[in-house]
Design a protein that fits this description.
Rossmann fold, four-stranded parallel beta sheet, 173 residues, alpha/beta, 2 domains
């Protein structure tokens, strides 16, 4: 089975996946053990890579490329440097979906499958579908508090997460 790569969107980093990577890891382990009769060792075969886009998370100190092609080059190199075997399955959200799709188009031999969540690329969603007008006031509030990381994260949480019970834990993380 292939290695899965998870890619987030604009201004998000791998820790914003929350519990999803653990759930996916568990599912992949169960699937591998059922299909092969024995569990695969994670150390022998990397199953899941969480990669940050340049300018975010682990790579926050790097300038983000101005083009999707530049992000593809960065992420592709980061994946290859891990030594994880391809072709890759990629689960990607928003801008990560744009990067993953461009990667698959440029290097089809690298990608086995794509799973895209809330992709913001044309022609799959029009501008008003990518950024609903009803969200604009909330985004303006976030922009006004961008230098206050906690307040900005609270605003992003309100716009992107229906689970308000995890707000405190999410912000602390």
């Amino acid at each position: 089975m292939s290695t899965w790569i998870l890619l987030r969107g604009l201004t998000r980093e791998t820790r914003h996946w929350g519990h999803l990577p653990d759930a996916l890891r568990e599912h992949l382990s169960q699937t591998a053990s059922h299909s092969s009769g024995e569990a695969l060792r994670d150390a022998a075969c990397p199953r899941l890579l969480l990669l940050d886009l340049p300018g975010n998370g682990e790579f926050a100190d790097r300038r983000a490329p101005a083009t999707v092609a530049g992000m593809v080059a960065f992420v592709r190199q980061a994946a290859l440097q891990t030594g994880a075997p391809g072709p890759y399955s990629v689960l990607a959200m928003s801008l990560g979906g744009m990067v993953a799709t461009d990667w698959a188009q440029r290097y089809p031999e690298d990608i086995e499958r794509l799973v895209l969540i809330n992709t913001s690329m044309r022609p799959f969603s029009r501008p008003h579908e990518r950024l609903r007008p009803s969200a604009w006031p909330g985004l303006l509030g976030i922009a006004m508090h961008w230098s206050d990381a906690v307040e900005a994260e609270r605003g992003i949480h309100r716009l992107t997460c229906n689970n308000v019970e995890t707000l405190g834990t999410d912000i602390d993380t």
